[in-house]
């Protein structure tokens, strides 16, 4: 039964909600209905699955339901909530959130504010202050693009935080900040923060397991997190050093290149491969997006250094240049150091204009024709080029667990074919080798296919799948 006093109270705080609620579909003799007899944890589970607007509406169901929503430990205010408010204005949305927090009773373990309609408003500072006093454990702030929201200092008093996600924010930890002792998940997307501040933040979270940094500009940083397991990096990074990440199991990296960063790379002499992957022996899944292999190829790889990735099962490398011998060495170094590799995916970068592509294809055609002749100069060029595979590939290399290989956007250069030949020759249990050429070299695909089918395969069941539009 709907309590008239409860409905008046709801109308006072949320008039727009009561206006479209209608009368509750309950009989007057159903005050002790089955829903009211449900255990508190079941009721909370039901209310948590409702949009916050609908959860507030349950106040008018009966006297026993009047304040049930107000004890929810998880509050989500997102665009779905905005859409349900009818004629939306910023003031309506802000007042709705403020009143929900004002009427709330008990701890709030998770608070999520995710809306593209809202940028900075002073009320958010008050919300975070309120949350900092209510045992907040998970905080997600995803604000719309526009004015940056400067995170208030009271956030750094939330010592019980286990998850923190910030989008379109400015972060400046105070000098007195000693870290989040319970933080396990940290996600920063388009966040303005100084390199030393973010390094200090990461290192002062002793149990951090999941870290995601995306859309950072010209950032050089060292990551020290002994319990880190999952790392995602995306942005314009000048330099990254994984100094203390021995527990890392999954890594995804995308590095965007600007002229300044490219010049910085050219002037660097330190081995990026060792600085980045030299201390990750437990790695299981590696995803290298744009410019990743280019970055790892910088500097001289020390002859005395070696590492084995016994747990690495999946490697995905994108935008790899098979015309850069140092990038090819990076790929070989990774796969030959991963004895239990099962899945390998490589997409090839295709640099240059269409004119350069055609010129390059004609050049290799010319070399192929001369290779069959007695022209010693042309033979020397090709032989020297392909001697790389005899010199750099270990003769006893075997990919004993590799079952699936996929290579895309091939441009029919010799080193791509030599790499495929190397994989087929040393993978005894390989099941599928998927190959797809770039759309820019359609006229080379027949010749490429003819060469591929002639390559010797160590696995009798290996299926070569040539995918071509």
UniProtKB/TrEMBL annotation:
Domain of life, source organism: Eukaryota
SMART domains per UniProt: FBD, FBOX
Chain ranges of the F-box domain: 32-85
Pfam family, one: F-box
Ranges that cross the membrane: none
Name of the protein: F-box/FBD/LRR-repeat protein At1g13570 isoform X1
């Amino acid at each position: 039964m709907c309590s008239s006093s409860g409905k008046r109270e709801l109308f006072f705080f949320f008039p727009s909600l009561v206006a479209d609620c209608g009368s509750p579909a309950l009989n007057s003799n159903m005050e002790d209905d089955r829903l009211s007899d449900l255990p508190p944890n079941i009721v909370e589970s039901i209310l948590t699955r409702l949009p916050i607007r609908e959860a507030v509406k349950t106040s008018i169901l009966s006297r026993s339901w009047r304040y049930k929503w107000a004890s929810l430990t998880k509050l989500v205010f997102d665009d779905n909530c905005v859409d349900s408010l009818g004629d939306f204005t910023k003031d309506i949305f802000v007042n709705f959130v403020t009143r929900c927090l004002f009427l709330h009773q008990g701890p709030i373990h998770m608070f999520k504010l995710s809306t593209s309609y809202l940028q900075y408003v002073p009320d958010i500072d008050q919300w975070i202050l309120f949350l900092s006093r209510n045992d907040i454990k998970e905080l997600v702030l995803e604000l719309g693009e526009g004015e940056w929201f400067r995170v208030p200092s009271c956030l750094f008093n939330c010592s019980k935080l286990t998850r923190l996600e910030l989008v379109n924010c400015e972060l400046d930890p105070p000098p007195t900040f000693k870290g989040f002792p319970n933080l396990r998940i940290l996600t920063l997307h388009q966040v303005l923060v100084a390199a030393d501040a973010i390094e200090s933040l990461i290192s002062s979270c002793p149990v951090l397991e999941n870290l995601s940094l995306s859309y950072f500009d010209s950032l050089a940083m060292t990551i020290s997190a002994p319990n880190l397991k999952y790392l995602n990096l995306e942005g314009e990074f000048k330099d990254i050093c994984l100094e203390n990440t021995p527990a890392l199991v999954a890594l995804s990296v995308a590095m965007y290149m600007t002229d300044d960063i490219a010049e910085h790379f050219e002037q660097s002499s330190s081995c990026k491969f060792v600085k980045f992957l030299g201390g990750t022996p437990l790695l299981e899944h590696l995803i290298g997006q744009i410019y990743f292999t280019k970055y790892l190829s910088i500097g001289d790889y020390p002859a005395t250094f070696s590492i084995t990735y016994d747990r690495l099962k999946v490697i995905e490398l994108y935008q790899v240049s098979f015309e850069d011998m140092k990038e090819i060495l990076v790929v070989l170094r990774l796969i030959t150091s991963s004895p239990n590799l099962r899945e390998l995916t490589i997409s090839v970068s295709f640099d240059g204009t269409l004119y350069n592509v055609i010129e390059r294809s004609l050049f290799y055609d010319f070399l192929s024709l001369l290779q069959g002749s007695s022209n010693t100069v042309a033979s020397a060029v090709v032989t020297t080029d392909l001697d790389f595979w005899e010199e750099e590939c270990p003769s006893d290399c075997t990919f004993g667990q590799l079952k699936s290989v996929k290579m895309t956007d091939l441009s029919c250069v010799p080193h791509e074919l030599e790499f495929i030949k190397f994989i087929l020759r040393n993978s005894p249990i390989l099941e599928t080798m998927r190959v797809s050429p770039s759309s820019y070299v359609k006229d080379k695909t027949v010749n490429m296919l003819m060469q591929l089918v002639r390559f010797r395969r160590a696995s009798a069941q290996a299926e070569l799948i040539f995918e071509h539009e």
